[in-house]
Batch of 4 targets.
Target 1
Amino acid sequence: MLKINENYRNLKESYLFSEIAKRVKEYQDANPDKKVIRMGIGDVSLPLCPAVVDEMQQAAVGMGKAETFHGYGPEQGYAFLREAIQGYYKEFGVSLEADEIFVSDGAKSDVGNILDLFSTDNTVLIPDPVYPVYVDTNIMDGRKITFLPANRENHFLPVPGPDTQGDIIYLCSPNNPTGAVYSREQLGAWVDFAKANGSLILFDAAYESFISDGSPRSIYEIDGAKECAVEFCSFSKTAGFTGTRCGYTIVPHTLVFDGTPLNRLWLRRQTTKFNGVAYVVQRAAMGVFTPEGRRQTRENIEYYKRNAQLMAETMEKLGIWYTGGKNSPYVWFQCPGGADSWAFFDELLHKAQIVGTPGEGFGENGKGYFRFSAFSSHEDTQEAMKRFYELYR
Ligand code: PLP
C-alpha cells in the first residue's frame, strides 16, 4: 500500500495570510464605507516596464513563425540571458562563468529544489524570523533545523558565535521580513565561518536591487564566498516578474563538497527534472538588461523605495524602533506600546483601517513586531502613514 512522506505531517499549517484575509473581510463586511489600505502585500503593484513587454511581444510573434520558432531550449537558460546576467554581476565586481549561472522560474523553486543535492543527515541553520519557505522545505525532507535568533539586540542581523553550528546555512539580505541588510564585515564573518566548518551558505538575494548604499548585493563580493555559497536571485521584485516567473541561481565551479563539484550535481539535477524557462519569458528577462529596461526598472524600484522611505521617516518621527526601509521594500517595527503583533494588527485595522503583517507569522522572534511593505501605490502609502502618525503621535 502507498505510504506518503511522513515528514509532511510535521509541517505546521500556515494561517498567516488566510487569517489576515479573514479578519479584513469581517471588518470590511461590518464597515463597508471604510477604505482599508493594504500595507502588507509582498507582491508588486507596478506593471512590467515597456522594454520588457517589447521583448516579450517580439518573442511571442517569433514563436508563430517557422524561422524564429523555439522548441526545447538549453536547460541552463539561453546564452543571451546568461551573458546579460554575467555583465550585470561585473558591475559589482563579481566575475562569473556563463555555466555557473542557471536560469530558473524564480527563486522560490530553486531555494527548495537545491535541497535534492544534500543528505537529510545535514543540519540546517535558519535565522528567526524568516521567509517560511526555508523552514518548510527542510521539514519536508526531515532535516534537523536549528534557529538562529535575530532580534533587536543584533539588529535582526545575526552573525556566527562560538556555539553556532550548521551544515546548511540560510542567509537573506536584504531580508524578508525584516528589511535588514548585512554589511560586508558581517557577511565576511559568515563566509569565514562556513569555510572553517565545511558549511554551505544558501544566499537569497531576491531583493538585491533595492540596495543603494554600497552594501553587498551579491555574497560573491566577499572573498572566499565562491567556495562556500550558492546564490539565488529573481526578477520578481527587481522587474515585477512575480507573475511572469524568472530568476537565476549561481553555483560556482569552485564549490566542492565531499569531493563533488556542486555545479555538476545541480546541472545533473536540472537536466533530469527541469526543462528550462519559456523562451518568451527569457526574452522578457533579457529586456530588463537593455539600457531602457535598466532605466525603467530602476524607476520602478525608486518608486517603491520612496514609499519605504516615507514609512521609515514616519517611524523616526514617532520614535518607533524599526529596521529596513532604506535598502529594502520592507519596514519591520516594534509594535507601539509593547503590543502583541496580532492585537496590534486588530488595533491598526479597526482604528486606522491599515492592514500589515504580524511579525509572529515569520517565527518566534517576530512576536511583538510588524511588517509593512512598500509595494502599494504612493497615494495609499501616504494616506496610510498619515493615519498611522495620527494614531500613535
Ligand atoms: N526569496 C524571498 C526572500 C522572497 O521574499 C520571495 C518572495 O516573496 C522569494 C524568494 C520568491 O521569489 P520568486 O518570485 O522569484 O519565486
Target 2
Amino acid sequence: MNADILKMPVTQLKGISSTRAKLFAKLEIYTVYDLLNFFPRMYVNRGEIREVLDFSGEGKALFALEVTKPLVSARIKSKKTGRAMTVQRFSAADNTGTVKITFFNSEFLKNTFITGRKFLFYGELERTARGISMTSPEYEPYYETSGYSSIEPVYPLTSGITKKLISSCVRQALDNYKESIEDGLEADIIKRNGFMPYYEALCEVHFPSDENKLKNARKRLAFEELYNFYLKMLFLSDKSRKGRAYRVNYPDMKKFVSELPFTLTYPQKRAIQDILTDISMSSNPEESAKRKEKYAPPARRLVQGDVGSGKTVVACAALYACAKSSYQALLMAPTGILARQHYESIGKLLSKFGIRTVLLVGGMKASEKRETLSLIESGEAQIVIGTHALIEENVKFKNLALAITDEQHRFGVMQRKALEDKSEQDLKPHTVVMSATPIPRTLALIMYCDLDISIIDAMPVGRKPVKTYAVGTDMRSRVYKFIASQAEEGKQSYIVCPLAQESEETLMAGYEMKAAKEYCDSLKNTPLGKLNTVYIHGKMKQQEKDEIMERFANGDIDVLVSTTVIEVGVNNPNATVMLVENAERFGLSQLHQLRGRVGRGEDNAYCILMSPLLKKSKPDSTFAQRIDTLCKSSDGFRIAEKDLEIRGPGDFFGRRQSGEFRFRIADISSDMKLLLLAKEEAERTVSKYSNSK
Ligand code: ADP
Ligand code: MG
C-alpha cells in the first residue's frame, strides 16, 4: 500500500469530524490505512430474501420491501424509565404482504423512508391479530439491478460508531484511493500461490459478494500478515545470530552420566545431544575441531517438555559441558525458591566434578552479594544460578558461554534479549530456554519461530500417572477427609483457588467462587481444621512467598492454599494431593500444569478437580466433557491442542506477551497450513535477499 495513505488521517473522509475521529481513535483507527485494515470480527449470513407471507421461520430474516405508508413520528413516555421518547412508524410491503415497522428516537429517518423507495430489512417478524410488524430492523437501500449480498460483516464497534458509518467510510476510502492502494506482496508470490489481488481482497472482506470470494480474500490478507510477521522475525533473529559465541568442546559424557541416580530417557539424551552439538559447532565442524576454533555461531534452542519430564538434568549436562571447557554458564529461574532448588540439586551434582556453582537471588545480604558478584566476575564461579537478579547491570561475567532460562513463558522477550548482552564485547552466549508448557505446534511456530526446538516427549520410566477425578462441590467434605488422612500419613496437599481475595468479581459471578484467603480461614471448622494450613498468593512480596514455599518444601505445612502462583515448577516429592476449586475457571493446560505439582515422588498421587458445575444435581455436559480429556490423558501436548481448540490462543501467550503476537485477520489457532506457507515464503525471500548481497 502506498505510504501516503498510511499516514492520511481519517478526518480526510467525508463524515468524520474531529469529534468522531476521537471515537475512531478508541478503535485504534487513526489513518485511512487503519480504517481499511479494520477487519470485521465475523460475518452473518442473512440468507436469501424471503417473502412476508411465506416466511414462517424463527429469528431474523431478510426482506426486500417498498415503503407504502409514510413515516409518522409521535412522542411517548417510556414504560421502563418514564422518560419522554419518540416513536417512528411506517409501513412497507412486498408482493405478498405488508409489515408495520417501528423505530425509536430516530426522527431523522423521515428523510430515508420515503414512500416508493425500496430497502432490504433484516429483522424478526412478529405476527399478531393486528397484523405483521418488525421493530428496529437493520436496513440498507435495495436496488434490484445491482443485487445484494447476503453476507453481512460484523465489526468490533464502540458506542457512537455504527456499522453503517464504518461501511460508508470504508467505501469512500476504497473509491477515493483506489489508485494509491498498491499490492505489497511480490508478484511471484501472488502468482505462485494464486492469491487474490490486494485491492480486490480489501473490497471483499468489507463488502463480501459470496462465501467463496470472501474465503479467498481473507486467506490472502491473513497470509500477508503472517508473511510480514515472519519476515520481521527472521530479519531480527538473523541479526542476533550474526554475533559469535564461545565454542564449547563436546565433553565426554560418560563420566557425567555415571554420576546420575537414574538412566536418562531417550528424549533426554536427544535433547542433550542437540544442545551439545549446537554449542560445540562452528560453520564447519570438522575443520573447526582440527583448528581448535574458539568461536561458534550463537545457538538458540527451546527445550519443551511436560512437567516432570526431567528438563533439569538436560540443563545440567549443558552447564557441565561449558564448565569442562573452562567457560561460564548461567541458569535463570523465575522465582527464588526455584532458583534455590536448582542450586541445591545442580550444585551438588556438579561439585562431584570439581565445578563451582554459586547462587544469585534478590534479598541476599549485601556482603554475601558482593562476594558472589566478584566470584562471577573473576570466573571462579563457573556456574551461576539465580533469578532476574542475574540480568542486573552489576552482574559481570568473565567468559559466559551459555544462558539457560527455566520456565521460559514467565519471561518476556525483552528479558531474553537482556541475557544475550551478558557476554563480553561482541560475544553472545548460546541461549537455551526450557518450557514446561507444552504448546501446540501452530503456536510454537509463531512464538518461537526464531528458535530450534527439542521436545522431551516421554516421561522417566516408572512414573505413575496422577489419579485424576472431576467432582462436584457436594463431595467437598469427603475430599477434606481424604486430605486429612493423607496428612496423617505425613503427606502434604495443595488446594488451589481461582482468586486471591474475595472481591467484586467474586460477588458478580453470581455463584460461589473461592478466594484463597477466605478459604483458608474457613477451613477451621472442617476436617482440615487441626492441620497446619497456610495460604499464599501472587501479590505477596517475593520474599514472603519464598519463605512459605520453603516451609512447604521442608514439610512444615500440611496444606498449602494458594492461587496459581504454585504453577511454576516447585519440586516437593512429598505432596500427594492437588485439589483445584472452581476448576471451571481454569484452562485445561493450566490444570495440567497444576496437576504436575504432585506425583513427583514414589507415592500414589491424586488430582481432584472440583466444580459447582459438576454437582450431581446439575450436570453440565460441556464442562464435564472438556474436563474428561484431563482425567483420561496425561499427555500435555494433547491437552494443549484440545485447550487451543476450546479457548483460543490468548491464554498461551499470557497477557504480557500477547501484544507481540496480535494479528488483525490471521487466526493462528486454526490455520496451520497457512502458517507453514507464510513461513516458507518468508524464508525463501530472506535467502533470496541474502544471496543477492
Ligand atoms: P521438569 O521437566 O518438570 O523440570 P525435573 O527436571 O524437575 O522435571 O525432574 C523431575 C524429577 O524426575 C526429578 O526428581 C528428577 O530427578 C527425576 N528424573 C529426571 N530424569 C529422570 C530419569 N531419566 N529417570 C528417573 N527420574 C528422573
Ligand atoms: Mg523444571
Target 3
Amino acid sequence: MTPLLTDRPEWQALVHHYEAVRDLHLRDLFAADPSRGPRLTIEAEGIAFDYSKHRVTDETLRLLLALADACDVRGRFEAMFRGDVINVTERRAALHVALRAPRTASIVVDGVDVIPAVHEVLDRMSTFATQVREGSWRGHTGRPIRNIVNIGIGGSDLGPRMAYEALRAYADPALTVRFLSNVDGADFIEATRGLDAAETLFIVCSKTFTTLETMTNARTARDWLLAALGDPAATSRHFVAVSTNEDAVRAFGIDPANMFGFWDWVGGRYSMDSAIGLSLMLAIGARQFGELLEGFRSIDEHVRTAPLERNIPVLMALLTIWYTGCFGVETHGVMPYAQYLASFPAYLQQLTMESNGKRVTAEGKAIPYPTGPVVWGEPGTNSQHSFFQLLHQGTRLVPVDFIGFRRAVEDVGEHQDLLTANLFAQAAALAFGRTPEELRDRGVPERLVPHRASEGNRPSSVLLLDRLTPAALGQLIALYEHRVYVEGVLWDIDSFDQWGVELGKEIAGQILPALRGETSTTAYDSSTAALIERYRTARER
Ligand code: F6P
C-alpha cells in the first residue's frame, strides 16, 4: 500500500525544515547570493524557467527532490509513457503522450501498438483540413465552407478554443471559427449569428457523444441547418464528429466516414492534441498543427530525460506541494503576458482542477492534506489594474506563474517592451516589495507609509519563451500537463478521473421532468422543490 504523503519521513523532514525557513525573506535570500537569479533558472527546449523568486533555499529544494524520489516520480513517468494503467479508478492508461509521439514510436496498450492508429487519424484529419481549406470539400449546395463551429464542452471545447485564440495570427483569415459549448440557448444564437448555413461546417466533439450540452446543441444546429437548406441529406456535408463512440455518432446521423476517432486512454482535458483539435487544424493547417505536436513532444522528451533538479514540470509541481502543504496556500495565479493567451487560465482550470481536485487517494483512502489549489488568472497587464492589489498587499499568499515572450507575434511599436517591462516589474515588486524605511527615504508622508508599504516575499515563477508559435503553445500545454501529473503522484491521487462532476449531471437529469411538470417535486429538499415551483409558475404565466 502506498504510504500517505504526510506519513513519509521525507515529508516530515520538509515540515521540520519549513519551521526554520518560513519567515526568511526573498530580499535576504537574494542579498546572500548575488547569483541566485541565474542559478535558480533552468533553460531547456528554448524556455527559461526562473524559479529564484520562490521562498526556497537549497535545502528546501534538496528535501523536495528527496520527496519526489521517495514517491518514485521518475518511475511513474516511465509508467505513463509505457501505457500502464495509471488511471486506476477507470482501469485505463492515460496516454496523451502517444498523441504526439513520432510515427516511429511504439506504445503497446492491451497488446496493440497505438501509434499507427494515432497517425492514421492525424493523416485523415490532415486530408480533411486541406480539402476544406482549399475548397474541394463543398457544402450541400456546392458552396465552399467558410465557417467552422466547434460544438463541445469541457475538454472538447476549452483546448481547441484556447489554442485557436492563442494562434489566431497563424489562422486562415478567410475562415470564421466559433465555439459553441453552453446549453444556454444564447450561446447557440451567438455562435450561429450571421452565418450562412450553406457555408457552415459543424464539428461535434464529444468523447462520449452523450454529453447533454453538446448533444442538445448538435441537435439544435442540425435543425438550424435543415431549416435553411431544406434537405436532410445536407447533414453529411455539414456535420463531422470527433468521438470515441461510433455507434452514437451513427445514431445521430453522421456517417462514420466523417468521424475522427480517439481512444478511451485520452482524458477529455488531455485531448486537445487529438482529433479534438480538428477545428484548430482547420484554422491553422496541418503543417502548423504538426509544429504544435512537436512542441508537446519536446517537453515529453524533457520530462523523461532531464534530471529531476533540472526538470521544469517537476520543479513547478514540487513548488505547488511546498506552498499548499506547508504554507497553507489555497490558490495559484497564472498570468500570461500575452493577450492571445487570454483563455489559457480557463483551460488550465479544467486541466488542473478536474485532475487534482480530489479528496481520496488512488486507493480510496481519505486524504488528510490539501490537494489541488484553485487556479485562476488573467492576462497582464490588464490584471494589474484589476486584482493585483490583493496579490501585493492582501492578507493571502498567492504564488504566481508569469508567462512571457521575448518577441511579439506581431510587432506594434514598442508595445512588447512595455508589456515585458511590466511582467518583470510585477515579479520583482511581489518578491521585494517596498519597506517603510524606503518610503520614508523617498519623503512619503508618515500617514501614508502603512498604506503604501508592500511587504514583498510573495513568490512567483517566470516562464520566458521566445515567441508564441504553435510549437511554443504545445510546449506550454505539455509543461502544465506534466506538472499536474507530478502533483498527483505526490498527493497519490488519480489525476485522470472526474467522478465529482457526475452527481450534478445525474440530479439535473432528475430535475428536468419536474421542471416540465411531468413529475412532482415531493422527492426534493424544500429549497430545490420551492425553486422548481417558482420556475414552473413563472413559465406557466
Ligand atoms: O463534465 C466533465 C466532462 O466529463 C469532462 O471531463 C469532459 O471533458 C467533458 O465533460 C465533455 O465530455 P465529452 O467529451 O464526453 O462530451
Target 4
Amino acid sequence: MSELEKLKSELNSLGKEYAKIKTLPEAERKDFGIKLNQKKEDLLQKIKQAEAAEASKDIEPIDITAPAASNQPIPHFEKGSKHPLMVEIDRVCDIYSRMGFNVIEARTIDDEFNMFEALNFPEGHPARDGYDTFRTAEGFIPPAHTSTMQHRALKKYKKDLENGGQIAVVIPGRVYRNEDVDATHEHTFYQCEGIFVSKDATMGQMLGVLKNFFETYYEQELNIRTQPGYFPFTEPSLEFMIEKPKSLGGKGDGWLEMLGCGMIHPNVLKIAGIDPTKYKGFAWGGGIDRLVMLRYGLTDVRYFESGKLDFLKEF
Ligand code: DAH
C-alpha cells in the first residue's frame, strides 16, 4: 500500500469513530468530537501533500542547458549589427577625444532660444529662414543643426575656463530640416559640432584641429582651403574645404565643402555668461552622412535612413 492509500483508508475508518459519538455519555461527546475533527483535518492535509508529491513524480525535470533535441528544428536568428552611421560617429568621437575634446550628445527636440536667440539670431533675423526648421504644434523645434547645443555646452563647461582651463567639446547629433529629399539631401541627417574656448584661441588652431581630424578620419594627407562664409554665431565665418583626393573618387582637382566654422561671436559667449574680452573661441559644425559617404564611395544619402538590409549588411 502506498503512503497515499494508507492515508485514505485511515480517513475512511474515521467514519466508524464518528458513529461512536452517539454511544458516549453526554459529557464526553464534545471533547471526543473536537479531537476527531482535528484528526480528520490532519489527514486531509497529509493527503493533499501526498497527492501533490505523487503528481509531480511523473513530471520530468527540465534541463535548460541541454542542447535542442536533434529531431527539433533549430530556430534561426539573424545577428543584428550597429548602423553604419553609429559606427562612424564612434570613430569621429574617438578621433576628437584623442585630441582632448569631451563628447556630449545633442538633443532631438529643442526650442527657439537654443536654435536662434542663444546663437545671435535676433527675432526676425533673415538667416532664421535659411534653416528650414520643423516645429511641433507646441512650438518646439527638432534641431536643424547641432549648434543648438552650443549655449548649453558653453554653460556646462564654463567652470573649466574659470579654473584656468579651456572648453573643448564635440557634440554629435541627429538634425532635421524641412527639405525636399534627393540623393544628396535628407530631411533627417547627422552633424557633429565642435567648440573650443580659451584665453587665446586662434583661427590657426582651429584649422590645425580640423585638418588633423580629416586626415585622421580619411587616413591620408589632405589639402585644405577656406572661403568666407556667413553664420550669425561666428565672426569671421568660414567654409572649410578639403581637396577631393583620388582615393575618394576625385581627380585631385575638386574641392569639397565639409563644414562651416569660425571664431565664436562675442554675443554668443556673452549670452552664455562668458566675458568675450577675456576669452576667445572657435566652433565648427558639419554633416556626418556626407563624411561617411565619401569614405565608402556611397552616392545616395537616402540609404542611411531607408532600413534596407541589403545596404546595411555591406558594413
Ligand atoms: N550650424 C551650421 C549649419 O548647420 C554649421 C556651423 C557653422 C556650425 C559655423 C558652427 C559654426 O559651429 O561655427 O549650417
